[in-house]
Amino acid sequence: MASQVISTHYHACNLCEAICGLEIKLQDQQIISIKGDQKDPLSKGHICPKAIALQDIYNDPDRLRLPVKKTVNGWQQISWKQAFDEVASKLKQTQQQYGKNAVAIYQGNPSVHNLDAMIFAPMFVRSLRTKNKFSATSVDQLPEQLVSLLMFGHSLIVPLPDLDRTDFLIIFGANPVVSNGSLMTAPGVQKRLKKIQQGGGKFIVVDPRKTETALIADQHLFIKPGTDVFMLLAMLGVVFSENLQTLGSVAAFTHDLQIIEALVKHYTPETVAPITGVDAEQLKSLVRDFCTAKKATCYGRIGVSTQQYGTLTQWLITVFNIVTGNLDIAGGTMFSRPAFEVLEHRSGRRKGFADDYSRVRKLPNFAGEFPVATLAEEITTAGKDQIRSLITHAGNPVLSTPNGKQIDKALENLDFMVSIDFYINETTRHADIILPPLSILERPHYDVVFHALAIQNTSRYSVPVFKANKKHRSGAAIFLELTWRMQSDNWWSKFTGWVKKSILQRLDSNWIVDMKLKKGAYGKSHGLNLKHLKDNPHGIDLGPMMPCLPERLFTVGQKINLAPEEFVAGIERLNEHLLAVELPIKDTGFDMLLIGRRDPRTNNSWLHNSYRMVKGKNRCLALLHINDAASRNIEEGEVITVKSRVGEITIPVSLTEDMMPGVISIPHGWGHNVEGANLNIAKSHAGVNTNILTDDKLLDGISGNAVLNGIPVAVTKLSSSLN
Ligand SMILES: Nc1nc2c(c(=O)[nH]1)N[C@H]1C(S)=C(S)[C@@H](COP(=O)(O)OP(=O)(O)OC[C@H]3O[C@@H](n4cnc5c(=O)[nH]c(N)nc54)[C@H](O)[C@@H]3O)O[C@H]1N2
Ligand SMILES: Nc1nc2c(c(=O)[nH]1)N[C@H]1C(S)=C(S)[C@@H](COP(=O)(O)OP(=O)(O)OC[C@H]3O[C@@H](n4cnc5c(=O)[nH]c(N)nc54)[C@H](O)[C@@H]3O)O[C@H]1N2
Ligand code: SF4
Ligand SMILES: [Mo]
C-alpha cells in the first residue's frame, strides 16, 4: 500500500538560463508534483513547461545509469573499472602514437549548467594537454565574450540589461518569451517585460520574424537576417549627427569616442535602409526615444551572435549602450556581483584570443578553444596533430553544429571516442564507451554561471532530491577519476590507495562552493557559506545590480576600450564582405535566407525523449511567408525541400504573415530519426536537423563563431525538386 507521507524538496531547474526554483513533492520516492518555488527570491514561483521534463529524465528507462561499451553485439553494460581502464588506455595509446593534440574534447551546453563540470572538468581538460578543445561557445555566445574581453578585459564581465528598472528596452535577435532569456538570467521574463510597459516604459523587438516576444512588444521592426550591424552603425550615426552622445558615469575611464564617431559618420538611416529593410524614419525615432528615455538598455542575443557579423553587432550594441550614457547605471546595462566569483585574474601571459590558430583552417582560438565549425576537418584532414580520439561531454554536435552531415561522418573516422552523457543520441552513438553521470535531481547544485549572469544578485544551493544509487557515479567522480588516470605521469601519481581515495572523496563540489562563498563578495557582509544556504533552501536575495566600474574592469589602467582595433578593422572590411555574401545568392539560386528559432518545450537537442515534451502536433516546421509560398506554389502543410551549399532537407511547412518575406525559419535540435541512437521518439515527431543546411565554412569573420542565421538557401515544393 502506498504510504501517505509526502515530502517537499527545493531544487533548481538547470535546464535553461532562468535557473527557476522548484518545489518538488515526493511520495514513496516518486515525484508527484513539480511546481515553481514561490519563495525563490529570483524566480518567485515562475516555471515553464520544461520543468516537468526533469521528472521524465529521472525516470526515463533510456537514460544510462552505468557505463556501456559498443560491441559487435550492440551496447553492453560494463563495470566502471573496466570503463575507466579502457578509456584511459585508449586515450593514452592515441597520445603515445600521435601526440597529445591527437586527443580532442567537445563540451556541450549542459556543461555550464552543471556544478561538477564547472568545478572539475577544467582539471580534466588540462590533464589532456591538448590544444584541440572545442565547445558549444562557438555556436553561441562567443561574440559577447570576445567583446567583453577586448572592451572590459575579461571574457566573463558580461553586460546585462537591467530589466526590472529600465524604461526602454531594445531587443535584437532574441525571443525571451520562449527562450526564457539568455545572457540575462531573468526567470519570468514575460512578466518583467510587461512591468516595463505598466510603468510607462516601452520595449521594441528587431527580428526577421514577428516572434512571441514581438507580439507583446510596443513595436516590432522586421530586419533582413545578418544586417543588424548596418542598423547599429546607422543608429550610432544618428546619435552623433544629432549630438545625443554622452558617456555619463563612465566618461572618466572610457577611451576612443572619437574613433567611433569617425567610423559611423558615413552610415545614415537612409543609406542602410535598402540593406536592412528597416525604415529610416522608424530608425531615427527609435534612437531619439532611446536617448530621451531616462534609463534605457539595448540587448542582443543568439540571432545576432550566430550570424556573419556577430562580433561587430554585439560590439556595436555595447557601444550604443555606452555612448548613450546607459552603462553601469540602474535601469541601463549593468554588471552582476555574484556570490561565487567567476572573474579571476589571469596571468597576463596569454591574451585569451588568437593566442593560437587551428591547424587546418587557421581559425583563432578563444579561451583556449577553437571554433567547433572546424572540428570535422580537424578529424578528417591527415597530418601532424590530426584528431584521432575524441571526448564529448554533454553535447550533441551532430545536431547542434554546422554541416551536421559532415560532422556525423567525421565521427566515424575516429580511432576512439568516449562520451560523458546519459543518452545514446545522434552524437554519442558514435562513441566506443559512454560514461553516464548522475541526473540533476540526484546531485547537489549551485549555479556558478547563471547567478553571475542574473539581473538580480541571489545565491541558492540545492541538495539532491534523490539519494544516488551507490553503483552510479557523479560527474565529479568521473572527472576526478579520468584526471587521475590521464595525469599518471606526474605529481598526482604519487598518491595511491586510501590516500588517493580520501583525496577523491574530500574533493567534492560542496567543499569548493563553501570556500568560494566564504571568500566571495558576501562572505563577510552576509555571512554567506554553504551551511547558511542549506538553512535557506529557497535562496538568498543579495540585491539588485549595483554600479561597479571602474573597479570591476580588468583592462590595463582599468579603462573601457570603446574601439578595439580588431573591431574597427572589421567595420572597414564590411563593404567588401557584404559583396561576398550577396554574390553566391544571386549566382546559385539560393534566394532565401534561413534563420532558427526555439520552442517552449524543447531544450536544444535533448528533451525530445520525454513524451510530454513532444506530444501533440509536430512542431519541427518551416515557417514561410505566404507570398514566398504562393510564388513557389507551396501550400500550407506541404512538404518542401530546402537546399543550401552543403546540404538538403525536406520538411513540412507552415505559412504565416509573421515572417519577413525572403526568410525561412526552422528550429534546431531536431532530426532524431537516425540509426543507432537509442531514443524513444516516434518517427512523426523526430523532426529534421536544420544544421544539415548550415555551412561550416560560413563563420563570423572575427571570432570564428558559427553562422546559424542568414544562411542562403533555395526553397522549393518537394515534387518540383525531384525532377
Ligand atoms: N541552427 C542552430 N543551431 C544551433 C543553435 C541555433 O540557434 N540554431 N543554437 C546553438 C546553441 S545556443 C547551443 S547552446 C547549442 C547546444 O548544442 P550542444 O551543447 O552540442 O547540444 P545539446 O542539445 O545542448 O546537448 C545536450 C547533451 O547533453 C547531455 N546532457 C544533459 N545534461 C547533462 C549532464 O548533466 N551531464 C552530461 N554529461 N550530459 C548531459 C544530453 O543527454 C545531450 O546529449 O546548439 C547550437 N546550435
Ligand atoms: N525553450 C527553449 N529555451 C531555450 C533553449 C531551447 O532550446 N528551448 N535554448 C537555450 C539556449 S542554449 C540559448 S543560447 C538561448 C537563446 O535564447 P534567444 O537568444 O532568445 O534565442 P531564440 O529564441 O532562438 O531567438 C533568436 C531570435 O533571433 C532571430 N534572428 C535570427 N536571425 C536574426 C538576425 O539576423 N537579426 C536579428 N535581429 N534577429 C535574428 C530569430 O528569428 C529568433 O527570434 O535559449 C535558451 N532557452
Ligand atoms: S524557464 Fe528554464 S529554468 Fe525555468 S523551469 Fe523552464 S527550463 Fe527550467
Ligand atoms: Mo546556447
Structural class: alpha/beta
Silhouette: globular
Q: How many helices?
A: 26
Strand order in the sheet with the most strands: 5-4-19-18-17-6-7
Low-confidence stretches: none
Describe the oligomeric state of these chains in a short phrase. Answer: single chain
Present as ligands are:
ligand MGD, iron/sulfur cluster, molybdenum atom
Radius of gyration: 25 Å
Mean pLDDT value: 94
The largest pleated sheet is described as: 7 strands, mixed
List the helices and strands and how they pair.
Blueprint lengths: L5 E7 L8 E7 L2 E7 L16 H7 L8 E4 L2 E4 L2 H19 L4 E5 L7 H14 L4 E3 L6 H11 L7 E2 L6 E5 L3 H4 L9 H10 L3 E5 L5 H5 L2 E3 L6 H14 L12 E2 L1 H8 L4 H8 L3 H13 L3 E5 L1 H4 L4 H14 L9 E2 L18 E5 L6 E3 L8 H6 L8 E5 L3 H4 L3 H8 L4 E5 L12 E3 L9 E2 L1 H4 L4 E4 L1 E2 L12 H12 L10 H10 L2 H11 L10 H6 L4 E5 L15 E2 L3 H8 L1 H15 L3 E4 L15 H4 L7 E4 H6 L7 E5 L4 E9 L6 E3 L45 E7 H5 L1
Parallel strand pairs: 6-7, 6-17, 9-10, 9-13, 10-11, 12-24, 17-18, 18-19, 25-29, 26-28
Antiparallel strand pairs: 1-2, 2-3, 4-5, 4-19, 8-14, 15-16, 20-22, 21-23, 25-30, 26-29, 27-28, 27-30
This protein binds ligand MGD (2 copies), iron/sulfur cluster (SF4) and molybdenum atom.
The site of iron/sulfur cluster (SF4) has 12 residues, from loops.
Quick structural summary:
With 723 residues, the chain is of the alpha/beta class.
